[in-house]
Amino acid sequence: MSEEIGDDWDEALRELTGQMDEADSQARSVALVMTPLASVEAVAAVLAMSSLPGQVLMTDTGAAVWLEVEPDPEDDLNALLGADRPMPKKADELAKLLSQTSPLGVVLLVSWLGNGDQGEPGVSGQVIARRYQKGAEGADLPAGLVISTADGRVEDLLLGKSTPADYENIDASRMGRMVGLKALRKAMKRKKKGE
After folding, report:
1. What gap in Å lies between CA 11 and CA 56, rounded to an integer?
2. Domain total in the chain
3. Measured between alpha carbons, how far is 63 from 159 in angstroms, rounded to an integer?
4. Looking at residue 87, what DSSP letter applies?
5. Predicted confidence (pLDDT) per residue in 104-162, tens digit
6. In a domain, 184, yes or no
7. What count of other Cβ atoms lies within 10 Å of the Cβ of residue 151?
8. Residue 108: inside a domain
């Protein structure tokens, strides 16, 4: 009898552990740096010359850089900080760099997502929006307002409904520094000509 209970207990524990592993594997974090710049080539070139990764695509408000964020062991604890949560290091570096390319700065959006809580269908998690200007982190912005006024692709990318592969994009990590420099020169010449 006690052996049957032990077997049942072991089976239930394996099932629960498997569900937890599956939930962990479905958790994801994505960063999106929204710029006011009108050239994906120029933004990709800046990233390539700085050896920073990112998928660059165009939105209605300008070029945006998408980056999958590596999970951090501190993510669960940091979630308790709310809007004071620190931004992931690579996303922060991207935003600081790109904020120097325009007097308007950039907005960094980061989503930490998982499946619905307690078996509920859908997505749950946290999205934070933060402004960056002149290479420095600035004030937090209402993420919902930023997303609702942006191109629909922004929400889809943040919530994992789409990836940059679903759109025309440039992978800055595959560009190389010299190619990036040539692309930046070409974009600057086009701007001078008014194209």
Report:
1. 46
2. 1
3. 19
4. P
5. 999 999 998 876 655 544 567 889 999 999 999 999 999 999 999 999 999 999 988 99
6. yes
7. 17
8. yes
